[in-house]
Amino acid sequence: MKKGTTAAVGFILGLLLFLSGDPICYGALQVGFYRGKCGFADVEAIVGGVVSAQFFTDPSLLASLIRLHFHDCFVNGCDGSILLDGPDSEKTASPNQSVRGYEIIDQAKDAVEKICPGVVSCADLIAIAARDAVFLSGGGIYRVQTGRRDGLVSSADIANVTLPGPSITVPQAIAAFADKGLTAVDMVLLLGAHSVGVAHCSFLSERIHNFKGSGKPDPSMDQFTVNTLRSRCPINAIENTVNLDQNPFSPLVLDNSYYQNILLRRGVLQIDQELGMSRFTRPIIANLANSVDFPARFGAAMVRLGAVGVLTGTQGEIRSSCRVVNKAVKKDKSG
């Protein structure tokens, strides 16, 4: 590792060590839950080292970790169920087939298991890694709550994997988030993660080429943006990707330019642009576009997301491998 990279990783680990601090309780979860449970080892710093190393190899993976956390929490709560392998597991469902970051969680699990076996849940590893990804993306730092346990069930059934899609209406999106105990403000804040994300052309092809069968692009989209996206997403080029934040100067920076672009009619996904037109969300978009405290507010929304449907206490289990439940692990070892 280069000298500059080593120094950067050292600074990050030091910051994460400070943030893990003494335990602070928030309901069933608490900041610093693993403090003292693994001897002198700091679990969050170990995970931070894994995520930081990946950041310097492929910065685009940071958006993947934030998305992984969202997809896990929105189905059955933040229980790590998206990590389980299987022919009909959650990760095989259509909305999850483009989710990445599983290998990073595997690496983090291996690292903590070597030092502290059977203590740290996979669900917490996702939450910690997402927090580190937010920080490394320039989105500020927040104290992550831990103490989750891992779920035992993972199903790709369409009734189980109900994630809001890119063409959902604003009222439908508000209702979907409300079902998880999250407000419209939480929703708009969390969608700010689109400032570091990408989308496959298949999700916007109709909008830029044949909006509602008109043979024309969506009239709510700025023409320059239409032309830019068409150059990257010609008809039938559905596997190409585009940045969800059309600010060319900060495509990998988690900031409020996502909201600024929406006000300029440069939202890439239909739901993005509709946030700026709906009477329910336009005032929130306008406020965030001009705010200086977006990082702190985004971090607070991530904490609220991370508390959705968690298992704690004696619920669930602490998996030995994030990809299988413990009974399966024991069976494999016994032959």
UniProtKB/TrEMBL annotation:
Coiled-coil region: none
Site feature: Transition state stabilizer: R67
Claim: Transport is one of the keywords in the record: no
Compartment annotation: Secreted
Signal sequence extent: 1-27
One example GO MF annotation: metal ion binding
GO cellular component: extracellular region
Gene3D superfamilies according to UniProt: 1.10.520.10, Peroxidase, domain 2
SUPFAM superfamilies: Heme-dependent peroxidases
Keywords recorded for this protein, A-Z: Calcium, Disulfide bond, Glycoprotein, Heme, Hydrogen peroxide, Iron, Metal-binding, Oxidoreductase, Peroxidase, Secreted, Signal
Positions contributing to substrate binding: P164
PANTHER family in alphabetical order: PEROXIDASE (PTHR31517:SF59), PTHR31517
Protein role: Removal of H(2)O(2), oxidation of toxic reductants, biosynthesis and degradation of lignin, suberization, auxin catabolism, response to environmental stresses such as wounding, pathogen attack and oxidative stress. These functions might be dependent on each isozyme/isoform in each plant tissue.
Protein name as annotated: Peroxidase
Naturally occurring in which organism (per UniProt): Linum trigynum
